[in-house]
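Re: that chain you flagged

S.,

Sorry for the slow reply, it's been a week of failed gels. I finally had a moment to sit down with the sequence you sent. For the record, here it is as I used it:
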Amino acid sequence: MTKQERALAVIERLKREYPDAACTLEAREAWKLLVSVRLAAQCTDARVNVVVQDLYAKYPTAEALAAAQEDDVEQIVRPCGLGRSKARDICACMRMLRDVYGGNVPDTMEDLLKLPGVGRKSANLILGDVFGKPAIVTDTHCIRLSNRIGLVDNIKDPKRVEMALWKIIPPEEGSDLCHRFVEHGRAVCTARTAPHCDRCCLADVCEKNGVHLR
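Prediction finished late last night. Pasting the structure tokens below so you have them in one place:
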């Protein structure tokens, strides 16, 4: 089995196991997904989904949030942790959308990375989920599973993992695969307990189980 063959097997197995996998942040508009992704740093998606309800009740549009006082936003988002820095980034990001991009979320990696608080992981999520473009979101699940399964070789840096995966993952599969990594990482290939290899659909193609590449 080559690395690319392993990648294709992983894609097909996880498709069958998690056919409806999607982003667990509840955001139907691009600007709201930007907000939620920033709030999700060191916070659960479930908590973010609750907190943003209060945020959008007070600031229902990107324009309203751009005009908000950072202290007021901080009070609302504080349950997500790092309230001051998150409020600062969110308000600055919304102002940049208003002042530079005509109120629209840009659809290129280059422009997304110019937005305050947006890194490659967030930008890839926007590109994949909002614009349907090729994307690989290297969150903790993606990095952990890619190393365990043997899709990458002991690489922990998110950008390096992303670049390594691009070499073996078909562009149209990247975004959905990363959502499935999240599902599989939470249910089976867990971080805080021993992975449940006995019920893993990838057991016979996984490097951790001694399946080595030729």
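What I noticed first: The chain has eleven helices and no strands.

Talk soon,
D.
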